[in-house]
């Protein structure tokens, strides 16, 4: 897992749907008071953008993202799609 790559939720865009928390199988998120919170950033797989691809508002960005496509993370979460 990664300490140099993890999601950050833009709370000004987040509609509190929780799709990211439901989607992530790595335990990065937790639903709290109807909104997701990044509680285990070190569990995020480097290069995985699966949760942000599910976010209907584009509220998720990543620390460590240099803006280049890396072809997926191959963590099995289907983020390559």
From TrEMBL:
Pfam family for this entry, one: Fer4_10
Keywords in alphabetical order: 4Fe-4S, Iron, Iron-sulfur, Metal-binding
Iron keyword on record: yes
Superkingdom of the source species: Bacteria
Keyword set includes Transferase: no
Family annotation (InterPro entries): 4Fe4S_Fe-S-bd, Fe-S_Ferredoxin
Residue span, 4Fe-4S ferredoxin-type domain: 5-34, 35-65
Protein name: 4Fe-4S binding protein
Species this protein is from: Clostridium aestuarii
């Amino acid at each position: 897992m990664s300490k140099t790559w993890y999601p950050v939720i833009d709370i000004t865009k987040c509609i509190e749907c929780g799709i990211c928390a439901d989607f992530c199988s790595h335990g990065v998120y937790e639903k709290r008071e109807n909104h997701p919170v990044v509680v285990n950033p070190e569990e995020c797989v480097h290069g995985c953008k699966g949760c942000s691809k599910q976010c209907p508002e584009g509220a998720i960005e990543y620390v460590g993202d240099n803006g280049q496509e890396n072809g997926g993370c191959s963590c099995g979460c289907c983020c390559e799609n």
